[in-house]
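Most newcomers find our protein records easier to grasp once they have seen one. To make this concrete, we reproduce a full record directly below:

===
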Amino acid sequence: MTSATSAPATPPGPARSRLVVPVLAFCGMVVAVMQTLVVPLLPHVPELTGASAGAAGWLVTVTLLTGAVFTPVLGRVGDMYGKRRVLLASLGVLTLGSVLCAVSSDIGVLIAGRALQGAALAVIPLGISILRDELPPERVLPSIALMSSTLGIGAAIGLPLAAVVTENFDWHTMFWASAALGLLDLLLVLWIVPESPVRSKGRFDALGTLGLAGLLVGVLLAITQGSGWGWTSGLTLGLLGASVAVGLLWGRYELRTPSPIMDLRVSARPAVLLTNIAALLIGFSFYANSLVTAQLVQEPTSTGYGLGASIVVSGLCLLPGGLAMVALSPLSARISAAYGPRTALAGAAVVMTLGYVVRFFTSHSLWLIVAGATVVSCGTAIAYSALPALVMRAVPVSETGSANGLNTLMRSVGQACCSAVVVAVLARVTFVADGHTAPTLHAYLLIFLIAAGAALAALVASLLLPSDRPSRDSARDGDRAGGTVTVSSPTSAARGNA
């Protein structure tokens, strides 16, 4: 078990301290936008770059892989060496990746740039950890609620913005814009955000990091590429088998090393394990909403249910949901403060389920489709706000970054699983309309049922969570770490309300 130390830190002045939350939230939103930036562009990538459709798909897959690997790793590095320092490095990587994509039309360079953009996903858990360390207790819950929700807000806002750019400007423009936003983020963090004084002791676990990377890449490659390769193909089954073997060896090593990249004993506690399972299921349910809405309204009218909408209109269907997520994050914090984050998560799962019920019965009207998608987004906002509060109540303060990184990773794994399921269903439940093969309406309705089932499973996981009160094990580990297991600021008592 690692312990925490406090490094000297100079807090920002009163005026600048009020800007820490909006600056970190803006960073999170920019990073989240990067994850979905190329989705409207994908159908046009082969003609723009001369690459195959399979190669174009890697512009999305590679961000998932690098985000999954680097998010928990950089969270742990931030706990050890300074969260602000690692946050700046992540934003620098994001900016570099954006510049690479902006200056080239070569598919190899584009994939490399997107890989760098994906690695910056660690900004969100790092930002949550900084907020916990820096803010007075009464501001922590609403601030982490907003920071956590940026993952969904950015995805909802990024799609329509990228669609507008794709239809009206040279496609490199959106990468130049993302590079400018990344540079702005860097400057704002340098000016506003102080270095967190909380550190965990120990040596960096290089071998454990390699094992974790091998495990995640193997599993996620099999999930994301299994539909194309064939779920029973030798390559898919071989990757899954190798991932299991690597996972067993990695787990055994992590349990024996004194300073693991991921503390499996803490991760196995019911309060942490069930929260991460819920994060996976919520990520699955949320991503179905994003993936299916745009495609459903773009289906041609010849299908009998499609609306024949443009890329821009399909992207704008998600915008009300993104705005609702911004508005609802303070409400989630109030629910968590009044009734506990477990209650907030359970309520969010119910709202998401109801949203898919609405979507199941209203798939022929644009406005009702938008209404159903917005209800799902509202539930997602409350869930994403409650998850980090649950994590931080269950882990020592010295492991805040790595624990939130793991929780963010589980959301990404849920999204990867959702993408594979959506692709498989839409590719197999089809019919011929006007000479072209298209998914049937029943395919979309089946996805809504599956997504609602995932939300209900998240409800079950939330109800199985222990009491919102910190466990004795967590309290004991928090004492050893020199921190606290409640959702509060370990440095605010010394700093006052600056």
